[in-house]
Specification:
The protein is of the alpha+beta class and about 350 residues long. The protein has 11 helices and 10 strands. α5 runs parallel beside α9, α6 packs across α11 and α7 crosses α9.
């Protein structure tokens, strides 16, 4: 049965953390914080569980690491806190972080608290319900937002050491190959072929930028009434790296295999002619214009890499289902996309000459 993504992932459900301990901690560490505190867990959080915190005077959002056994280097909320703090100061649209707590004893896992950005989340990439003009404006806002991110000099905002941009794609291939093997639950021939093929065709670095790592519409808060991005969320995978790798990840929505259940990542397949949805060629041209590029000649290699990377990320979720640490009831269904993603990645690899 196919789920309604907007209904399934919107709103909140019961919290699973100690509200009293959290309220005591926040009253000591956030200026102006005053209870009583009520909290509820957002349904949409996958990798790092996310909660809405409400007090009589103000709302906040909390993100924590999952409880239990974790893969090495995963769920890096400390990095999320650092990058969003720097970007907020630079005027980039993020929810301003307020307090990081690395002490597991407070609620059972490390967490941080940020401002609550009031707005809309569209769980389908075609932004259902918008007029053609508003949909076109929202796509243009997405395009401008990722171009703005890639135009920020990391050193100028204190992030010069936030990653090693040289050889970013090669390291990502190695990292996600290892993460995939650590979480592997069945043999997928296309993943084996990609793990063997990708290291030899790595594109040369296209520059050094802050990369989000998971930039898509459902990781953005949209203004309550206007078609524009007011906050980019979910910076867990952010680092310094190749901006074209980051942008071509964002392009995956045009080719995303459609999930039979509706779980996983949304797709523009079947919506390419919806009013206001830009042709991918025009969308690429807009980004290149904004960032001073002449095009993306190695597009098929980048797409093969990105579909491989997402398959490995979702396999990690399946690994957490296996280990009992998955953060969402839809995780098992979402992880069924691993094989179709691998097949799509291999189709791009074949297009690139594999």
């Amino acid at each position: 049965m196919r789920i309604d993504r907007q209904q399934a992932f919107s709103g909140t459900t019961a919290s699973d953390i100690d509200a009293v301990a959290l309220e005591t901690h926040l009253a000591q560490h956030i200026a102006g914080f005053a209870g009583p505190l009520t909290l509820a867990r957002f349904k949409g959080g996958q990798s790092n569980p996310t909660y809405k915190l409400v007090t009589p005077g103000r709302s906040y959002v909390l993100r924590r690491k999952p409880f239990g056994k974790l893969l090495p280097s995963a769920h890096a909320i400390e990095r999320e806190y650092r990058v969003t703090a720097a970007l907020a100061e630079a005027g980039f649209p993020v929810a301003r972080p307020l307090q990081l707590c690395a002490d597991d004893s407070v609620i059972g896992a490390a967490f941080y608290v940020m401002e609550h950005a009031e707005g809309r989340v569209f769980w389908e990439p075609q932004a259902p319900g918008l007029s053609g003009a508003d949909r076109a404006a929202l796509f243009d806002s997405l395009n401008a937002t990722i171009a703005q991110l890639h135009g920020i000099d990391p050193a100028s905002i204190g992030l010069g050491d936030f990653g090693r941009p040289q050889g970013y794609v090669g390291r990502q291939i190695k990292r996600w190959s290892e993460q995939y093997r650590a979480s592997e639950t069945e043999t997928i021939p296309e993943m084996d072929r990609l793990i063997a093929w990708l290291p030899g065709v790595c594109p040369a670095d296209s520059g050094a930028a802050i990369v989000h790592g998971d930039f898509r519409l459902d990781n953005c808060i949209v203004h309550p009434t206007e078609p524009r991005v007011i906050a980019v969320l979910d910076w867990e995978l952010s680092t310094l790296g190749d901006p074209l790798a980051d942008f071509t990840y964002h392009l995956m929505q045009w080719f995303m295999p459609v999930s039979e259940t509706g779980a996983g990542v949304g797709s523009l397949l079947g919506h390419e002619t919806d009013p206001g949805v830009p042709a991918i060629e025009a969308y690429i041209a807009d980004y290149c214009r904004r960032t001073g590029r002449n095009g993306i000649p190695e597009l098929s290699i980048y797409m093969a890499y990105n579909f491989f990377r997402l398959a490995a990320i979702l396999q990690g979720i399946l690994g957490r289902v296996r280990d009992g640490t998955a953060a969402n009831a839809e995780a098992a269904a979402m992880a069924r996309q691993v094989r179709p993603l691998a097949e799509t990645a291999w189709s791009f690899a074949r297009k690139a000459g594999a």
